[in-house]
Amino acid sequence: MTYLLEAKGLEKRFGAVVAASAVNISVKAGERVSLIGSNGAGKTTFVNMITGYLKPDTGRITLGGQDITPLDPRAITRLGVARSFQIPQLYGDLTALDNMLVANACHDQKLSFWQPARRPAAIARAEQLLERFGLIEHRGRRVAELPGGVRKLLDIAMALTGSPQLLLLDEPTSGVSAEEKFPMMATIMGALGQEASTTVLFVEHDMDIVERHASRVIAFYAGRVIADDTPAVALATDDVRRYVTGELLAE
Amino acid sequence: MAAVIAPSSKAGAAQPAAAVAGAGHGRTVLLALAGCAVLAAVGWFAPKWLTFLVTMAAANGMVSLGIVGLMRGGVVPFGQGMMLAVGGYTAALVFNKLGFTDALGLALGGGLVATLIAAPFAPLLSRYRGIFFAMLTLALSMVTYGLLMKLEVLGGSDGFNVGRPTLLGFKLPDARVGYVMYLLTVVLATVMAVAARIYFDSTRGLVTLAVRENELRVEYLGGSVRQAMTINFILAAFCGGMGGALVVLALGHIEPNFSFWTTSGEFVFVAILAGWQSVAAVFVASTVLEVVRSFSSAYFPNTWQLALGLFLLFVIRFLPKGIGSLWMKGNTR
Q1: Which of A48, A74, A83 to mutate to test the interface with B (most CBs of B within 10 A)?
Q2: What ipTM does the predicted assembly reach?
């Protein structure tokens, strides 16, 4: 079977802290995978290793068969990996449209000294994505003035600019009120639904959202993978109920 | 937040995209040409002291333009004086030693040599930010100053004089040499200003703005922060070198003080005064500096720096984003 993403034998320590231990994960193209676990379980460390921000102490990561373990974030991005951030990484002084145009420019292999950044084709592409995420009315507003949920969506929209084959969402609904989480996630998945070839890994703490939007769940605890299965199966395992959802502790 | 998940509306859609991209540069070029034509006409009738003042302002403005280009990427160099000196010494040496006297050629040559000198340092400097970048550029500038002071072949601490240039094969008439240098400098400054505006509005220019705000995200979007900063440093060197050559041709003299850190500080002053959003503001600010310096030197010869400092305090207090913010309100270009 051909996997889009394969992580084999990943180990990562920060002094005495084990951030990743014997992590073996394989993801097929088109999957919607949720990464769950308590704080410090190793989810973001795993995401950071895939994107090249952290290098594993041992182990190997391949993307479409190519070893990306030694590559830097920019090189990995150019291979078709994109991510959003738990705290949106945006350009506050620029408008939402300009943020999208920055993403468009960065993905351009041939940056120009004279070709306008705000040319029709780039603006059309940017507005198309803004429209898909319900952000078109904010196109002319400075990002610093936008509400938190809008900034989250913009962060994800920017990641989609390069039509990545693998999209990593780091807690896309964090910081959003409970009543807004579901509509926001529906917006995100609805927008991603138009990119059927994009594989999505999203870190999430809300199990209702996980059950609704993930086809597969990978649970982390103390740097190890403690479950890897469909949501119904994974969320019912004793380890997940003990270390992630806390249900066994409550009982 | 409801707006986030509600069906989007096309209300508030901006002007057609084609108008945004196409008309912008066309309007910029027309305005620049008009401004250049007005200056050319005014200069014909203006007194010599005024045309000389504007010549120096335009030439120094080019040097400061390079600093603004770097400021858009979030760094401030304190060594642009080195580029001024390299361009100036290039023009002076080529004039005196090789007998090549064409002002346009010397200006371009000054820019080119400054670019070649800066290129090896640019990748190293692109790794640094904040005070480290400023100190490194200042260090390069002071090393250059030290070398120029020691090298007698380059005139040592006294420097040397430069004669009257020619232009496109023509000798400049005695009565109009000042005006011709004024016209050449204004034209070149106009060309550089338009080129800078086009570059700032380009994809590379936008990535530079992004680097200023969030380097991490630029890398995660596939952009190269180091490449952006390296290119900006090289372009700033060209601006500084060309400006330096024109300053020397207008003054008729070159000396090591061009590379001293206080000279670099004046260009930083102009860049701060102008702000990083407007190209025209750079030349306005440079002119303001020349006016303040000239009149302060005339009426407060022992305390003109005090006048300059007070003026800077005034600007920082009431125009923290620079003169350009007066007409670039809400525009983050």
Answers
A1: A74
A2: 0.88
